[in-house]
Amino acid sequence: MILARFVISILLLIYPTMGFPTPLNATEHKILQWVDNHVDGSISLLEASVNTNSGTMNLAGVRAVGAVLRSEFDALGFTTQWIDFPPQTNRAGHLFARHTGGRGRKVLMIGHLDTVFEADDPFQLFVRSGNTATGPGIEDMKSGNIIMLYALKALDAVGALDGLQIVVAYTGDEEKPGEPLEAVRRDLVEAGQWADVVLGFEAAVHRDGRDWATVARRSSTEWRLEVSGKQAHSSGIFSEDTGAGAIFEVSRILTAFYREVRGEEYVTFNVGTIVGGTDVSYDEEQNRGVAFGKTNVVPRKVIVHGGLRTMSNEQLDRTRQAMQRVVDRHLPRTSAKISFVDGYPAMAPTEGNKQLQSLLSDINEQLGRGPMPALDPSQRGAADISFVAPYADGLAGLGAIGSDGHTPNEKIDLSSMSVAIKRAAILLHRLKQ
What we know:
alpha+beta; 6-stranded mixed β-sheet
């Protein structure tokens, strides 16, 4: 018996050098127990959050969701701040919460209060069926917001929050950032420059029976294409005097994008809106347009609004140039111009990010869920963590397991809430060490 205990103690000491997961300590076991005892409370708060509409343009709703979280962080002893923007940005603002300490790495935790579902969308309510819940923004990312809070609550309950250096940032316009971008992300960037580690809590990925870690995300750039043709009687279309018209020209351009620009790894581009005809109006802020045309009139105008994602600035430049070359070729009697608006930068898969992945994977194994390999960056979109990726090591995708984000079928697995809370709390605890 004495020999067996001796062997076990030696193995525990050398686990790190052997590549075995670090065993959970007494404090971490208390974290697990607390989370199991309080997961119902996290789901109740999630339901209330989902049932409060906070579409990006519903400024009052975004503030209402933020106010509830603010009261929770106030009760935890955090210093909270609502950051307002100038009225011309037409955005609600951000909620920041700070916990000062002097132990461990400085950690920035990122969530967002807004969703893509505006106040007039028919998809509005939290609905539960067993361990599955649907609702607007439940995956992206109201569940992640609650996970952030409850991970910190768990640490506080077991006496492990004291000394942690934490900034919690809930942005209010992640789904449709205000302008100028430099202004509405200034506070987030400053927090990233302060931090050693950045953790993003959008939905987790579980595929092929495994949990996956997010160490990289692609950029997000908007593009707008405006095409003009000669308005004329349709009997003359394709003639030398009339030409092809705006809609045939835009069809040529989009087809060429698909055939000639598509294909490079990590490059994707999407057409979100297309409006064409004789008379066209388009509201870029609302992504809504109106068109009028007749079958016997050659259309004179088309507007296309789309998005572009890449893994690096170099790849973005190459793709822009390729799209420009396509646009510069014109069908007869047409013209076209393309413009780009930079949005979210890329989050590169750095060595520091991979070290954090290893730490998270270690925790995941101790929770009985196996190792966490790195997810292919093409499987994730852009997020606020990318703004601070140049300044600190980071991990994203620390939220609940869900699917069908940005659709009326958006859902999460409620049983994954407790898993995500435990993982995050233990990760924070180990970063404190």
